[in-house]
Amino acid sequence: MARHTCAMTQKTILITGCSSGIGYDAAHGLRAAGWRVFASCRNATDCGRLMSEGFDSPLIDYADSESIYSGLADVLEATGGTLDALYNNGAYACPGAVEDLPRGALREIFETNLFGVQELTNAVIPVMRNQGHGRIVNCSSVLGFVGMKWRGAYVATKFAMEGLTDVLRLELRDSGIKVVLLEPGPVTSDIRKNAIPHFEKWINWEQSARAEEYAALRDRLYTDSGPETFELPASAVTRKLRHALESKRPRPRYYVTTPTYLMGILRRILPTRMLDGVLIKG
After folding, report:
1. Which residues make Cβ contacts (< 8 Å) with residue 57, sequence separation at least 6?
2. Staple partner for 254: which of 136, 185, 240, 266, CB 3.0–4.6 Å?
3. Do the beta carbons of residue 84 and residue 96 sit within 8 Å?
4. Contact 24, 79 (CB under 8 A)
């Protein structure tokens, strides 16, 4: 991992999932804002690329406990044992109908999207508690509070993340550690492309009762049709992240993109059946 000398007043942050998209933009945006950024990735090639760009880049794979502890140890060695903020950003999707998700697919995605997030967070909390302050920001999604077809595995992990994050916020209220959720909607990233190997590994769509319906999903996965409606660049998330990190009194939740705001309103005001109708139409 690259080493840099920094002023004692420079704030430090560990960000996961920095190989592309939201994490990559956050790493660059926060470094430009004066933060010392530890931009972690789950494979060594991406870590090497980020180190060539001047970042400290520990190897952290949420599915590998050893990498979580060794990566965090590298960060704490570099900072002298302190850390101002943790941004849990890393995640992936496994598209497919819920009835076609085998147990292994759910086990695997929860290991990365939830269990690893929780394990790293639990390892960081004692550091922040000892220093008397800290920020923990978890990247959820609009799919952390509403469901959409074909996204059941991802939705399940984000709903679970939101529950744990809400409880953690309550439990750490008087500790000096602030806990925040970011909830982006459509944002430019590689999440769709990165979902293809998981779809191919786990979803036996040809034998599914919904085989004909998979045509649209597969077209969406394998065809680059350009930005989605209301899609924003990853920098839109970084702007909200900076507020969550730098505000003296951060909000518990930050919506990003029009669909997130819209779904937040509809979820509050519509009966479930009416909301289902909106979600089914996409």
Report:
1. 1, 2, 18, 38, 39, 40, 41, 46, 47, 48, 50, 51
2. 240
3. no
4. no
Token pair listed for 202: 């786990």
Strand 134-139: give its sheet, edge to edge: 36-39, 12-15, 85-88, 134-139, 177-184, 253-256
pLDDT for 1: 54
Full DSSP string of 111-145:
IIIIIHHHHHHHHHHHHHHHHT-EEEEEE--GGGT
Taking the complete model, does pTM exceed 0.90, yes or no? Answer: yes
Distance CA 132, CA 36 (A): 19
**Of 101, 95, 96, 100, nearest to 209 (Cα)?**
100
Length in residues, the chain: 282
Instruction: Give catalytic residue positions.
Output: 154
Residues of the chain below pLDDT 70? 1-8
pLDDT at 265: 98
* The pLDDT of residue 56: 98
Is the distance from CB of 86 to CB of 131 less than 8 angstroms? no
CB 89 within 8 A of CB 16: yes
Displacement of CA 158 from its chain's centroid (Å): 9
DSSP letters of 26-46? HHHHHHHTT-EEEE-BSSHHH
